[in-house]
Amino acid sequence: MLDDVEKSILLDLARRTLEGYFASRSLPGLPAPEELRMLPGGGAGLRERKGAFVSLHKDGDLRGCIGLIESDQELYLTVRRCVLSAALEDPRFPPVTRDEVPGLALEISVLGPLVRVKSVEEVQVGRHGIYMVHGVNRGLLLPQVAVEYGWDRREFLEQTCRKSGLPKYAWDSPDSEFYVFEAEVFSE
Q: From the centroid of its chain, how far is CA 107?
């Protein structure tokens, strides 16, 4: 679990990354290793190699969300990478413009490990996110999405199928694999 200082550092880094990129196409400086070590707990949470997603919201609506299920980089580097990807590369939306940046709200989801489930009955809405694999199709929905939309387990599974590019009942196929994960979610 991240402490409040680490969460604040990640949100600040994500905000400064967006602002710096759109102001001058440059990225902000990163905390130096010695600065991280001076944090409570030595900044261990920021240096873990974990998956993360960054969601951008404009006027309460999703404006972009990109992440990595797993990362070979330290968490603060993953967040910096994902915030720019969410702003510029989410295929569901046109790229964010410079004028939009001040009005964007940021949300970061730090992912726990994926755990394969044998039965979809193990999926707990409000606790788990879902990662679905069916042949070459893949899809992921963060835990907070089901809560935000008021979905029950079945609707959550159907929407994960949709996100995977599959018919909504593909969750019931023996060829579908499901993994669950928990996420630590925080926002500005």
A: 8
Distance, CA of 183 to CA of 162 (rounded, Å): 21
Contact 3, 110 (CB under 8 A): no
* Single pTM value for the model: 0.91
Q: Where are the beta strands (DSSP E) in the chain?
A: 52-58, 61-68, 104-111, 115-117, 129-134, 137-141, 177-181, 183-187
H or E segment and range at residue 162: helix 153-163
Superfamily of the domain at 4-111: Hypothetical protein ph0010; domain 1 (3.30.700.20)
Give 115-186's CATH code, choosing from 3.30.1490.150, 3.90.470.20, 3.30.70.1400, 3.10.20.70. 3.30.1490.150
What would the pLDDT profile of 70-107 be if each residue is shown by its tens digit? 999 999 999 999 999 999 999 999 999 999 999 999 99
Distances (CA, A) of 93 to 34, 87, 139: 39, 9, 17
Question: What is the rounded distance in angstroms from the CA atom of residue 146 to the CA atom of residue 125?
Answer: 7
